[in-house]
């Protein structure tokens, strides 16, 4: 470890900072539906998710190897490139957290790495086949597969439980939600925590601290697991509100189906080494569960904003990372400038977020911006009810009270 330079130390610390933002940005993936349906109290939910994220970090290293060995050419980049990539990913995570949009931390990291690598070593340093097969295709397939599975599971669940006792069934499904939420948290640790492990391992290789093609050292696995667990415990309450209430209103049956479907997709992808977006998977399953219930509604205005964020994540993070890489190429002062800019921007975003605090005490409060479709429906229903009442004849035997108002007015005059 004698080659552990100052820039390498900065990269490791910045990578763990990204892992922390990944934790609170993606807490909603595991716990939004559990919290919104009342299956668990908010603080207990994020505490359980944090512990299982840490456990999941030790279960596999396939995704870490995809990033550290497969996506870019190790020999063509320097630690400064990794630093620039992390700057792009962190800033995108914080901006989307501020507005409550569940975008992909994974794709922010991938976009940052690709943008910084291209700016430093050119297009040839990015392995296009790995990018397509293990990043882009899963990005499209994951929400579709998870959504379809959740829709079918929801319909099957309601059909099987149509004769069950209402309250007893709800209690059973809430227990099932807790178990499935734990499975999603475990899956999140096996996939997202590994991305930071992979990026730190790549930095250690480029900095000469470990040999090429090395697996993540134990201290890297432990530190990445702890960072994402801490971020998860603090809770990304803004995104939890969007996922739990903004996309659709979920009942316990739907929450159980959505989380089970998402966890299955994420765990399968982790086993295959796909750098999957857990956000895409869980969002797709939540929408699928919303469509699977008879009378269920997906708020497409919120979903459209979310889709736009998904499409912008890779290019936006890549652009910021490429600019950061250009500045760091000027030497030590350039790297210092980028570091100061990152800290100042992060602090500014936090200050802005304090204007409207969202935490465990109000995460289930309905936000007007997220329920436009519901309000519209309620207003339409009220108007229609009034109109129907006006033209409906009175029931038999009903004697209508005479309208005495005109006579009163005449007497007054």
UniProtKB/TrEMBL annotation:
Membrane-spanning segments: 6-24, 44-61, 81-101, 108-126, 132-153, 196-212, 218-240, 307-327, 333-352
Superkingdom, taxonomy of origin: Bacteria
Pfam families: PHO4
Transmembrane helix listed as a keyword: yes
Bilayer topology: Multi-pass membrane protein
Region Disordered, residue ranges: 389-413
Cell compartment(s), UniProt: Membrane
PANTHER family noted in UniProt: LOW-AFFINITY INORGANIC PHOSPHATE TRANSPORTER-RELATED, PHOSPHATE TRANSPORTER
Name of this protein: Phosphate transporter
Species this chain originates from: Streptomyces ureilyticus
């Amino acid at each position: 470890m004698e080659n552990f330079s100052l820039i390498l130390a900065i990269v490791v610390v910045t990578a763990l900072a990204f892992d922390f933002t990944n934790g609170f940005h993606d807490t909603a993936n595991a716990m939004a539906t559990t919290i919104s349906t009342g299956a668990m109290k908010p603080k207990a939910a994020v505490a359980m998710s944090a512990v299982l994220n840490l456990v999941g970090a030790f279960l596999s290293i396939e995704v870490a190897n995809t990033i550290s060995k497969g996506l870019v050419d190790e020999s063509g980049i320097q630690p400064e490139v990794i630093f620039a990539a992390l700057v792009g990913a962190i800033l995108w995570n914080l901006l989307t957290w501020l507005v409550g949009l569940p975008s992909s931390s994974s794709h922010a990291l991938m976009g940052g790495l690709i943008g910084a690598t291209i700016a430093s070593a050119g297009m040839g340093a990015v392995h296009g086949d790995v990018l397509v097969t293990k990043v882009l295709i899963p990005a499209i397939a994951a929400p579709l597969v998870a959504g379809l599975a959740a829709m079918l599971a929801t319909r099957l669940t309601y059909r099987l439980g149509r004769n069950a006792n209402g309250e007893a069934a709800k209690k059973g499904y809430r227990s099932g939600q807790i178990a499935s939420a734990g499975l999603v948290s475990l899956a999140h640790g096996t996939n997202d925590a590994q991305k930071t492990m992979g990026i730190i391992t790549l930095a250690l290789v480029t900095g000469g601290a470990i040999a090429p093609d090395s697996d993540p050292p134990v201290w890297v696995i432990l530190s990445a697991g702890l960072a994402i667990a801490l971020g998860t415990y603090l809770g990304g309450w803004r995104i939890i509100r969007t996922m739990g209430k903004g996309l659709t209103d979920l009942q316990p049956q739907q929450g159980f189906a959505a989380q089970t479907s998402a966890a299955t997709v994420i765990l399968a992808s982790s086993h295959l080494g796909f750098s999957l977006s857990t956000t895409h998977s869980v969002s797709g399953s939540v929408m699928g569960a919303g469509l699977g219930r008879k009378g269920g509604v997906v708020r497409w205005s919120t979903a459209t904003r979310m889709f736009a964020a998904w499409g912008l994540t890779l290019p936006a993070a890549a652009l910021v990372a490429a600019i950061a890489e250009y500045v760091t190429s000027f030497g030590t002062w350039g790297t210092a400038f980028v570091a100061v800019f990152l800290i100042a921007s992060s602090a500014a975003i936090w200050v802005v977020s304090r204007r409207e605090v969202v935490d465990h005490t109000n995460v289930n409060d309905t936000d007007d911006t997220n329920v436009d479709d519901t309000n519209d429906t309620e207003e339409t229903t009220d108007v229609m009810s009034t109109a129907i009442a006006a033209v409906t004849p009175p029931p038999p035997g009903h004697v209508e009270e005479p309208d005495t108002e005109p006579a009163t007015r005449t007497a007054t005059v």
